[in-house]
């Protein structure tokens, strides 16, 4: 609960936990229950800040924290776009948990969704925020990894175990939109480089016969500099950026 803290869909904040790290860390902001409540979904890595934070919160109390921000200028909903679709990888879904609603309400149309993930827990936590705003017929959720079969028939968002590549999915969406008279749509991508590259290739070839406007969201917590074969990290500069391509 952060009294008086407000943010726009897609923005992020810097979470400062002095007892764990001298550097504030950027995380996407997700609406909570109530005007002054903010949620943050964090993927815990084996070591580093997120691991230390998880251990510090085991007792349910957690260390002293401060939330700075909000930061960023949301690019969704985009003016003039007749449709919006989202391509996510794993915990990259976090911007979509508020942007899907914003895009759907702005266009009065539900959004398309492509999401490849491994965490069954993340799927169940995110689904209630997505389902009211997602066009199920233009949705592809791929649930992979050990233990995911436990969800059985009760999986939300019609999660599947079969693989469908991003290009084929955008091709399908484009064809559907063209039949509805749509000439341009936006693709918002947040995920690993391979996923972003596949979306870029599909947009470049106008998959489905439609003109795609591409936005790739990137996390640049510690920018790296290239010196020969080594890539040492520069001074900590928590940030997040987006790249838009026509």
UniProtKB/TrEMBL annotation:
PROSITE patterns, per the entry: FAD_FR
Main location: membrane
Cellular location(s): Cell membrane
Enzyme class: oxidoreductase
Pfam families: FAD_binding_8
Catalytic activity: 2 a Fe(II)-siderophore + NADP(+) + H(+) = 2 a Fe(III)-siderophore + NADPH
CDD domains named among the record's database cross-references: NOX_Duox_like_FAD_NADP (cd06186)
UniProt-recorded name of the protein: ferric-chelate reductase (NADPH)
Lineage top rank: taxon: Eukaryota
EC nos: 1.16.1.9
Entry keyword Oxidoreductase: no
Membrane topology per record: Multi-pass membrane protein
Record domain FAD-binding FR-type: where: 1-77
Xref: PANTHER family: FERRIC REDUCTASE TRANSMEMBRANE COMPONENT 3-RELATED, FERRIC/CUPRIC REDUCTASE TRANSMEMBRANE COMPONENT
Sorted UniProt keywords: Cell membrane, Membrane, Transport
């Amino acid at each position: 609960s952060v009294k008086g803290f407000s943010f726009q869909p897609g923005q992020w904040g810097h979470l400062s936990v002095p007892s764990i790290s001298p550097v504030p860390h950027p995380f996407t902001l997700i609406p909570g229950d109530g005007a002054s409540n903010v949620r943050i979904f964090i993927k815990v890595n084996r070591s580093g800040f997120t691991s230390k934070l998880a251990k510090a919160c085991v007792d349910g109390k957690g260390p002293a924290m401060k939330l700075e921000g909000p930061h960023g200028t949301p690019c969704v909903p985009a003016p003039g776009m007749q449709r919006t679709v989202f391509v996510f990888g794993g915990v990259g879904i976090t911007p979509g948990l508020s942007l899907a609603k914003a895009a759907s309400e702005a266009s009065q149309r539900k959004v398309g969704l492509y999401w490849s993930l491994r965490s069954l827990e993340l799927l169940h936590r995110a689904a209630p925020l997505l389902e009211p705003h997602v066009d199920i017929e233009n949705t592809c959720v791929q649930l992979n990894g050990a233990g995911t079969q436990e969800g059985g028939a009760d999986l939300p968002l019609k999660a599947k175990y079969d693989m469908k590549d991003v290009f084929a999915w955008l091709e399908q969406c484009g064809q559907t939109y063209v039949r509805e008279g749509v000439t341009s749509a936006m693709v918002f991508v947040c995920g690993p480089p391979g996923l972003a590259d596949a979306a870029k290739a599909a947009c470049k070839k106008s998959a489905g016969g439609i003109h795609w406007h591409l936005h790739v969201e990137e996390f640049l917590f510690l920018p790296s500099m290239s010196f020969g074969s080594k890539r040492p990290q520069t001074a900590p500069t928590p940030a997040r950026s987006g790249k838009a391509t026509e």
